[in-house]
Amino acid sequence: MASNLDVFEISGPIHLSSIDWSCPHDQRVVAASLVQATCIQEKDRENKRAGSEALAPAWWQPFHFECIKVLIDNHDSSIFGCIYEFKRPFPGHPSPPRFVVTFRGTLPDRRHGFQDGFLDLCVIFGGINKTARFETALDAVQKLMADYNTQDIWLAGHSLGASIATVTGKYIAKTNIHLKTFLFNPPFASIPLDWFSNLDNKLKERLRICKTILKGGVSLFMQNQRKKSLDEFSKLAAWTPYLYVNPGDPISASYITYFEERKEKEGKIIGYVEQVVTRTSLRESCSGVLGRGIEMSHLLPSASLAVNRNKLNGCTSKFTIMLLRHYSFKLESHHKPNQMLFIVGTMW
C-alpha cells in the first residue's frame, strides 16, 4: 500500500493553482515537487505501479511538465534521476525553465540500501564525482544542453541527490555556464565540532583555529594544487545555488554554522586565513597530489541559504515550504595580491 506521503492529493501543494514563475516561493515548490516525483517514480517501478496506478505523474502534471527521460543507476537498475520538459506554450517573461533535471535522495530500504549507502559514503569521504551515477547525471545534462542548444535548465536534488546536483552544477559552472540549482537538505561532507556537545566553546574555538592553521599549512605547501583550487573556486563565484536546510537535520544543518562563521570572522586575521582554506579541503588537496581529483560537494563559494525552523517530522520535512529565516550569501573577489576571497552575508 502506498504511503500518504507519496499521494499528491494528500501531501502535494494542491493549494498552488497557478504558478508565478518570478516568485522564488513558487519556483521552490515546483522544484521540490519534481524531486519528489523522481523518488516516487522509483517506488512506482519497484512496486510495479504503471498507467493509472502510478503515483508519480500527479507530481509533475499540475505544473505542465512531462518526464521525457529517467536516469538509471547501472549497479542496481534503480531510477535515481529524471529529466522533465515544460510542455505548454511559454507564457512570456518571466517564463518557466524549459527543462528540470532532478535527483532523488537515499532510499533507506533493503532494495536500495547498499548502493545508496555506498554513494552516501562517497559524499562523506569524497569521490562522488568518481561514481557511475554522477557520470550518468553529468552526461545527461551536457547532452541535453548540446541536443537542444539551451542553457535553460534547472537542477534539483534532495539529500544524496542534492550532492549529485551540486557537483554536476559545479562542473558545468567551471565552463562559465551557471544553471539554476535547488538543493534540499544537501549533506555537509565534514564532521562539525558542534556535534561534540561535551566540548566547551573555548576548546571548540581552539580546535577550529588549529584545523584552519593545518589546512592553511597544507595549502601553502602544495602550491600547484592551491593555485588550481583558487582558479576553480573563482570560476564558481558567479554560480549561486539555493540551499534549503533544517537545523534539526544533522546531515545538512552544518551549512548554517559554515556560513555564519564566515560572517563572524570577516575582518579578523584568522578569518582571512579561513577564507583561503575554505576553497578546498585536506581530502581534495591530498587527492590532487595523488592524481585522484576528488570533489567535495559542500565547498561552495556562493550560496543562497534558507533555514527552515519547523520541527522535523519524518519524511514530511523534506520539502516543507514555510521558511522562517533566510540568508543570502554572495562571494566577492577582492583584487589584492593575495587573491583573498570573502563571503559577505545579509539576513532579512
From TrEMBL:
GO biological process entries: lipid metabolic process
Pfam family, one: Lipase_3
Residues of the Fungal lipase-type domain: 129-178
Record-given protein name: Alpha/beta-Hydrolases superfamily protein
Organism the protein comes from: Rhynchospora pubera
